[in-house]
Specification:
The chain has four helices and no strands. It is mostly helical and 58 residues long. The protein has one domain. Helix 2 runs antiparallel to helix 3 and helix 3 runs antiparallel to helix 4. The two termini are 16 Å apart. The relative contact order is 0.16.
């Protein structure tokens, strides 16, 4: 994962911008997502109380 993307994801977490996290990560094709991105995506879905999507994303 790019360092810049990781920093941006962390900033969005601090600001409770979970929809932005979901939007940015889902722009990346599934086969190109590493385990860190999948974890961030699942965490964002969980924070949005979208539990089924969190389970499916991990």
């Amino acid at each position: 994962m790019e360092k810049d993307l990781l920093e941006q994801l962390n900033l969005w977490y601090e600001d409770d911008e979970f929809e932005k996290i979901v939007g940015r990560i889902t722009e990346i094709p599934e086969q190109d997502r590493d385990c860190d991105l999948v974890g961030h995506l699942a965490r964002a879905f969980n924070n949005l109380e979208r539990y089924d999507e969190a389970l499916l994303s991990s």
